[in-house]
Each structure stands twice: as structure tokens, then as C-alpha cells.
Amino acid sequence: MPAAEAPSELALSVLLSTLTLIFLIVVVTLVPLAQFVGISTSPVMLVALLVCLIPTTIGGLLPAIGIAGMERAMRANLVAKSGKAVEIAGSIDTLLLDKTGTITLGDRRATEFAACHGVDPARLREVAALCSLEDPTPEGRSIVVLARAQGAALVPVEHADVVPFSAASRVSGLDFADGRRWRKGAPNAIARQIEEAGGRVPEEFETLVERISRHGATPLAVAEEARLLGVIALSDVIKPGIAERFAQLRQMGVKTLMITGDNPITAAAIAAEAGVDDYVAEATPERKLALIREEQAAGRLVAMMGDGTNDAPALAQADLGLAMNSGTQAAREAANMVDLDSDPGKLLSAVEIGKQLLITRGALTTFSLANDVAKYFVILPAIFAASAPVLGSLDVLDLHSPQSAVLAAVIFNALVIPALIPFALRGVRVHAASASAMLRRNLLIYGVGGLLLPFPAIKLIDLALGVLM
């Protein structure tokens, strides 16, 4: 996978390493400083002080947060090949989604036969249905069902070769032994073939295609030889609540990009209804791969889903590749996450699970760092107040002794980590908000809370130690 390490993981590693180095320097410099003011220090006390000051809380909670993220993914029937995959899901900037099955229900059905001027509608139905008899897709079967419902008596043709649909030609149909050709497929592909055969595209053809497309349906053109017969409307339904989920992702800073093989007018209608940020129409597998590389070149992390062998290069290139369990072996091997339910909508769930992992880690990191700052201002005044009266005003807790101050901080440190493990496993509730809003919320709740909690807790522990000692 291109992303060897998520940006958030790299930033946290740098932060924790830097703070550990700073507090190590602070503790080491305390030795000559303590000797200068006449305070005796022992190696045990210095080690205990270092343990209190370095960010041990978040260090101890990181495994629990990662395990919780993997567990939430498993509950959603998402198998992540590594914990890094779940984390990357939370760092995604751009989400590439197929239209069919992800944004729509994926149950496109033929709803209309629109014949061109001068064409018998019965002939359009017959050619369209006969071209679809060997089509195994739900769309192909629905064309046959609609034609029969409208009175077409279909007799399978003989001495004809089936031309299967391909992403390159974007058409399918029948080739007869006498040289006749029937075709159905993308309107621009059919129109191009008719013109190459010396035929003429009717003037009302573009009007039919545009009318069907503006209603969010997918138009399929039908041709007999070099004569265009008309257009089939394939209608799908937008998944309920999908626009709200896209709005939540947008508030979290994730750009949604719909990829579809439909024409630009249909793509625009579906994109507007679904609420995606952008769309790419008439897309090919090569175009998907190029889009991912363009986004990554701009410094963004990209997620996408796929299930076919032709999706494998794009799944491997994406920072987060989600493959369907029902897909090909090549797709599953190229992806770093597999959906056991083969539900294309799970890509949204994967991003939300990753976001929760990152938000939880951010909240507990804020809490941990605020704890360290508080312990710093609790312990150091207690150590130096007796020899440096000027620090007496900072010794607000009036702890018994430097030794009890360090011991109370060590005990507090030992208690707070297991106390926060259930919180780390449960996770912070995800609210749809911008990064700045989440930062303000974390600073207010976990920053202020982490700053204030050590003072009363260490004081209570110190009082208990005073009684016991």
C-alpha cells in the first residue's frame, strides 16, 4: 500500500518521542539543580519522577484504542488486514464511491421503452428484449420482464452469436449469421457505431437521452443495423439517508467523489440528489486509477471499494482499499480491508469507525498531556518549596514531603491508566463536526479535565499516605 504510515500515527509518534526527550532532559537537569539548593535526590526518586512526567497514560492506552477499533470493524463484518488499515480509514481525505450499489440500491430496472420517431414501439421492445435474453445482469433480466409485461412475445433467436458487454466497447448484443447486428448499450457508443456504419442518428435521440437522464435514470440505446430504434430507461433508487451520511462526512473534512459509467447528465442528477461533492461520469477502471493518483499527488489520502479483477490496481493504489467478499481473489488480495457482507455501503462505515478511533485517541492524548502538565506543577513545587521559598506560592496542595509527592503521583499514574481502559475500548462518541470544532471540544472536555483531575486526586492519595506513614 502507498501509505506506509498514517499521518496521525506519525504525528503522535513524533509528539510522544519529543515529550519523552524533554522530560528526560528535565529530570536529568534536576540532579545538579537539587545539589545546588541542597536537596538530596535518589536514583529511585528520579526514575519515579520520570515515569510520572513522561506521557505514560496515552502510551498505555494506545493498544486498547487500537484493539477497540479492530473489534468495531469486526462487529461490522469488516476484516482489516492490519490495525493500520482501520487507522488510515479515519484519516481519509477523499472517498471514491461507485454509484450502483453504494449510493443507489443497486437494483436498476427497466421502466420505459422510448422509441424514436417513426419506429414501432413493439419493434424496439422486441430487439431490446432479445438482446437481453442472454444477459445475466439484473438490468438485462428487467428489460425482458418489462417487454413481456407490455405484450412482447419473445422467441429465442437462432444462428446468432452473443456479443457480451465490455467496459471498453460499452455495448452488447447479437451478431447473426447473415451479417445483421443488433446492439444495446451506452448512447454515445451506439451513436458512434451507427455513424461508422453510415447510418444517421435521429434528431430527437439526444432529447430522449437528456429527458431520461435528467430524471436520474440511465439511458440505454438500442440499434438494429445502422438504424437507431430508441432508448431504454433504467431506473435506480437513492439509498435512504445517504445524503445525510455524506453531509456528516463533509463536516468531518472528507470529500466524496462518485464514480459512474453513466453519461454526465444522469451522473449530475444522481450526484445532486445524493449530495456528493463531485462526480466523474463515463468512468473506466483506468480512469479510477488515474483519479486516485491525482488525489494522492495533491497530498490526500484516498479510499475506494471494488470487487472485480479490473479494480485490483486501483484497490492496491488507494490508501484504503475495501474489497467485497463476493469479489475476485485478485481484488481481495489487493485491498487492505474486506467486507464479509459484500455491501458497498460499508465503505462509509469503515471511514466512520476509523474516525472514531482517531477521535478517541486524540481525546485521550489531550487528557494525558494535560495530566502531565498538572503533575509537573504538583511535584516540582513540592520538591523545591522548602529550599526555594519563592516556589512556596506554587505549592498549592501543601503535600507532606517531596517523597510523598512523587509517590502519590506514581500511584495516581498507576490508577488512571486502568481506569481509562473501559473508556478507550468504548470510544468517544463521534459527532459530525469540523477538525477545529473537534479540537475545541477535546481541549475543553479532556484538556481542562485532564489538567484539573490530578490536583484533588494526588492530594487525596498524599493524605492517605500521610496516615499510613
Structure description:
By secondary structure, the chain is an alpha/beta fold. It contains 18 helices and 13 strands. The strands form two sheets. Strands 1-13-12-11-2-9-10 form a seven-stranded mixed β-sheet, sandwiched between helices. The mean pLDDT is 83.
Features of this protein?
18 helices, 6-stranded antiparallel sheet, 469 residues, 7-stranded mixed sheet, 14% strand, alpha/beta
Brief account:
The protein has 469 residues and is of the alpha/beta class. The protein contains 18 helices and 13 strands. Helix 16 crosses helix 18.
* Integer average pLDDT: 83
Global shape: rod-shaped
Over the alpha carbons, how many angstroms does the gyration radius reach? Answer: 32 Å
Q: Major sheet: order of its strands?
A: 1-13-12-11-2-9-10
Taking the alpha carbons of the first and last residues, their distance comes to 57 Å
**Number of beta strands:** 13
Low-pLDDT runs of 5+ residues are none
DSSP helix fraction? 55-70%
Beta fraction = 5-15%
Main β-sheet description:
7 strands, mixed
How does the helix and strand content classify structurally?
A: alpha/beta
Number of helices: 18
